[in-house]
Amino acid sequence: MTRLANKVAIITGAGSGQGAAEARLFAAEGARVAVTDVNEEAARAVAQEIGEAAIAVRLDVTNETDWRKAVDATIAAFGKVDVLVNNAGVYKPRPIQQTDRALLDLHYNVNVVGTFLGMQAVREVMRDGGGGAIVNIASGAGTKGFPGMIAYSGSKFMVRGISRCAAIDLAPDKIRVNLVLPGIIDTPMLAENPPEILAAFPTLPPAQRLGTVDEIAEAVLFLASDAASYVMGAELSVCGGLMA
Ligand SMILES: NC(=O)c1ccc[n+]([C@@H]2O[C@H](COP(=O)([O-])OP(=O)(O)OC[C@H]3O[C@@H](n4cnc5c(N)ncnc54)[C@H](O)[C@@H]3O)[C@@H](O)[C@H]2O)c1
Predict the structure, then answer these.
(1) What is the pLDDT of residues 43-66, one digit of tens each?
(2) In a domain, 87, yes or no
(3) Candidates 40, 159, 185: which one to mutate for ligand 1, based on the most atoms within 8 Å of Cβ?
């Protein structure tokens, strides 16, 4: 399969869950992939499994120096950057009564600042290479309130806002910016839910099951590929009807 033939992609948070699935699918579709994560060991394991189409890079998305190194390492290995998936995220659900400044800052720094720094880090190299595609991962929780998600939901609303603005700003450079909004996806992140949040949470979505990482990866792949050449500033919900 060749839906990403000759493309070079950087994926953040790719040592686990959705990011790892995206790295595997992208490579299977012909891309070369920088598998990045703050957890270097996890990134290395995914890159090793993929083989020579992948490199592993330690990247804390909140750190500008890390971003420069990751872009440099990708160019050194593969010559260019065509695609960035800002997938890394944190989710520590607590109601406002248990949310302090530090918890708010954590979500803001990783989910929002990390996404912003990623777009900043790749935009010039993409522009100079003739264009590119950025896919930012928000959430259904970035479209409405859910119990216990004040910090997470607020950060994902912001991811949507900065992505839509970047889509407009970067269009003249032939860089497409789009969003995927996952619903409830079966990844290690779900283990962050304390029992009281689970009890207050809506039951299964209309699909009557959780989503899989592969179902998210397919949506990200579409937006990253040339098949989405006229899709800009769009939001693709992949949520089994949760947000319907
Ligand atoms: N799982 C869900 O139900 C769900 C729903 C909606 C949105 N999302 C979003 O999907 C994305 C992927 O999450 P997942 O479900 O695969 O979770 P996950 O916990 O399996 O993976 C998250 C990855 O992000 C990495 N990470 C955390 N902080 C980082 C940092 N500062 N720098 C770089 N990497 C960092 C972690 O090491 C981990 O590998 C996240 O943005 C998340 O908010 C998840």
Answers:
(1) 999 999 999 999 999 999 999 999
(2) yes
(3) 185
